Amino acid sequence: MGTVAIFGAGVMGETLLSGLLRAGRPVDALVITERRPERAAELTEKYGVRVLENAEAAALADTLVLVVKPQDMESLLEEVAPHVRPGDLVVSLAAGITTSFVESRLPEGRSVVRVMPNTPALVDQGMAAVSGGAHCAPEHVAEAEALLAATGKVVEVPEKLQDAVTAISGSGPAYIFYVVEAMIEAGVVLGMPRATATELVVQTLFGAATMIKETGQHPTVLREQVTSPGGTTAAALRELDDHKVRAAFISAMEAAALRSRELAGG
Ligand SMILES: NC(=O)C1=CN([C@@H]2O[C@H](COP(=O)(O)OP(=O)(O)OC[C@H]3O[C@@H](n4cnc5c(N)ncnc54)[C@H](O)[C@@H]3O)[C@@H](O)[C@H]2O)C=CC1
Ligand SMILES: O=C(O)[C@@H]1CCC=N1
């Protein structure tokens, strides 16, 4: 088994690291790099993983997974580029960063896969989309898929759809947490103790998500089943429509996709 190096062990780097370990990858087949020494020490203590400098890790690894912020990608690529050999695979998880951006900073002909993961990977319920670059064979894409499959579902998409993926499943968990926060606040306004409101909202979210997944029915059908004529749900949904919540979601996700397109430009 080749060595996987994770460059940048923040939220998403740790999520991937812990997922690979849970999936049974030996810790000595993994290394991380991390600019913040206290963060590196924390992860070594927690997982027993080796921490190397970027150049050392690049020289050692066959699979290089880049998990720094888009703004830090340029300088990271400068450090690792001289050490990326022809058979290596470079996997970028950074929002907005295209395969051609990465390829152009590496020696000619290197294999690059762009991935958009999400944080539910932390509980093995991730959703990731992968796209191969110009010098990728199907086995390179399959290798990246296998890495991400350790933490959830993976689909392959044409790279031009990656900004949309970022807006849907990459940022998506944050929209759901926002809705959950709002529903808990509403419960408190209605006189419910916060802990009980939280329990009711979280189980309702879990139940609704499970219904969508397991019944295979369209969300519109499921929503109609809850909406009695002249009842409480109809009263609530009219308020949501009056406040243009559906249109707000579309605008919000268009803004996310636009921001993803901007990020490679710095
Ligand atoms: N957090 C999320 O929900 C998602 C994040 N992503 C992408 O993952 C990437 C990382 O995001 P987060 O983990 O949230 O950010 P983060 O800020 O938590 O982690 C980035 C880590 O990289 C380290 N770092 C920066 N430059 C470095 C360098 N040159 N060498 C070594 N380490 C370096 C930082 O110290 C930090 O710990 C971003 O590009 C983001 O677009 C993608 C999908 C979801
Ligand atoms: O907010 C961001 O830029 C990253 C990408 C997707 C989720 N978080």
What is the average of the pLDDT values?
A: 97
Q: Count the strands?
A: 8
The DSSP helix count reads: 12
The biggest sheet, with number of strands, parallel, antiparallel or mixed sense and barrel status, is: 8 strands, mixed
The side-by-side strand order for the widest beta sheet comes to: 3-2-1-4-5-6-7-8
Please state the second-level CATH architecture of the largest domain: 3-Layer(aba) Sandwich
Unreliable spans are none
Task: Output the CATH topology of the largest domain.
Answer: Rossmann fold
Overall geometric form: elongated
CATH superfamily of the largest domain: NAD(P)-binding Rossmann-like Domain
- Small molecules in complex: 1,4-dihydronicotinamide adenine dinucleotide, (2S)-3,4-dihydro-2H-pyrrole-2-carboxylic acid
Distance between the termini: 36 Å
The percent range for strand residues is 5-15%
Radius of gyration: 21 Å
Structural class, from helix and strand content?
alpha/beta
What fraction, in percent, of the residue positions are helical? 40-55%
CATH class of the largest domain: Alpha Beta
Counted up, domains total: 2
Secondary-structure element pattern, one letter each: EHEHEHEHEHEEHEHHHHHH
